[in-house]
Amino acid sequence: MDADEVREAFLGFWRQRGHAPVARAPLVLWGDPSTLFTGSGMQGLLPYLLGAEHPAGHRLVNSQPCLRAQDIDDVGDSRHTTFFEMLGNWSLGDYFKAEQLPAVWEFFTGTVGLDPARIYVSCFGGDPGHGIPRDDESARIWRELFTAAGLDAAEVDLSTEQRAAEIGSGGARIAFYGEKNWWSRGDSIDATPVGDPGGPDSEVFYLYPDVPHDPAFGARCHPNCDCGRYLEIGNSVFLEYLRTPDGFAPLPRRNVDFGGGLERIAAAAIDSPDVYRISLLRPIVDRLAELSGTGYEQRRYGLRVVADHLRGAAFLVADGVRPANKEQGYVLRRLIRRAVRVAHSIGLTEDFLAEVVPTVTELYRDSYPEVAANAGTTVAVLAGEEQRFRRTLARGLRQLESYRLLTGDDLFTLYDSAGFPVELSTEEARARGIELSPDWRAEFDARMAEQRARSQAARRH
After folding, report:
1. What is the pLDDT of residues 55-65, one digit of tens each?
2. What's the gap between Cα 206 and its chain centre?
3. pLDDT digits (tens, 9 = 90+) for 355-410
4. Intervals of CATH 3.30.930.10 along the chain
5. Are the beta carbons of 111 and 102 closer than 8 angstroms?
6. 327 near 29, Cβ under 8 Å?
7. CA–CA separation, 185 vs 217, rounded Å?
8. Between 408-418 and 440-460, two packed helices, what is the crossing angle to 10 degrees?
């Protein structure tokens, strides 16, 4: 299965089970100031998860383009992207764990054809302090599914990711974690806002046995380890609790919220631990490699970063974002400029975006026709930003070459005189082995604050 086939198979799988397809939300929820971008499939459905009636009914399915700018520094390995599609199905007060988990198993092992022996899962280990029990029901369902497939269903209680990295999972099929397997809009169980739903979740991982564990991520491996040996491909959230001023109470209407990354599922479908080899990313990588005269194995990091950033930028432009110095426009500008800077390091030293953007937009002609329909605008916006930034890049790189140690004052000078963004200065410094002073961030922020104060004073006069 290629990525488009996985998407269509997922939508069809749940439509056959009475789920109504819902249109994707834009990457920017323009009326929602609480977030810059749509970062999950459920984000646009939050009112219905909180109890409102959805016009399409109680069973929903869609594929939602998402962007998580907070992952930008992780892009370059085999599995992280800033832009991705989230496949989602929802039950709004209808079915629950007993129906959801077997269906997820059927989709992954039957429809997609993944090897059951390489599937591992995690469940919520409970929180006695809040009176929330361990999710033994989900574990029991998984145990029955594994046993029916002739697989051992050993369990291990790992509690925290830190403890898991110390002791490892020992190959157990079902792993219990604490807050890692709890979902709410807060950062922790304690931070769940009063009046909000929350609940345990159960993640599904696919094992790549030929990928060795990287001890940089801990002494021992476990399903939630970020070394790449296990890849999360789906997560069923069971919203069954309501935060009250006194703690947690049962939620009157229990919901299911499933999210699965299309790129990761598509990678598992072709038995690749590298998401950049799937049909929605490999053509972009190949076009970049062709233009740069390099090969993927030699320049994997750079080709991955540029491919990811261009894909995300193309969707942002199609959804109405334009380069700017704040909010969504700043993230778009950063994606474009970071792509250009990294492209420069792999030999693309001349303007290239106009040559590659059509490859990106053509990939989505059938699934998201609005992206292809805006191809001309996207080329113009991205190519124009590239041309402006290349002049900045040339000045900044010339100045950067004179440093062996960069302080916050130096970084401010590069920003103020050469227009070189601090993120790009620090990335380029690390790439060139230029040392950064320990207090560079505080020094830079202080100089920026001084500049803002001068500007405000000048406006008053």
Report:
1. 999 999 999 99
2. 17
3. 999 999 999 999 999 999 999 999 999 999 999 988 888 887 888 888 889 999 98
4. 3-276
5. no
6. no
7. 27
8. 50
Residue matched to tokens 């029916």: 148
Q: For residue 235, what are its two tokens?
A: 């997560």
Q: Determine the Cα–Cα distance for residues 6 and 63; give it in Å rounded to an integer.
A: 11
- Residues 6+ away with beta carbon under 8 Å from 315: 27, 65, 67, 83, 368, 371
Q: How far apart are CA 183 and CA 192, in angstroms?
A: 9
40: number of Cβ within 10 Å: 18
Q: HSE (CB half, 13 Å, CA atoms) of 398? A: 9
**pTM score, two decimals?**
0.90
- Give the residue from 377, 392, 457 showing the smallest Cα distance to 422: 392
**Candidates 3.30.930.10, 3.30.70.1270, 3.40.50.300, 1.20.1250.20; correct CATH number of 3-276?**
3.30.930.10
d(CA 34, CA 29): 9
Which pLDDT does position 456 carry in this prediction? Answer: 58
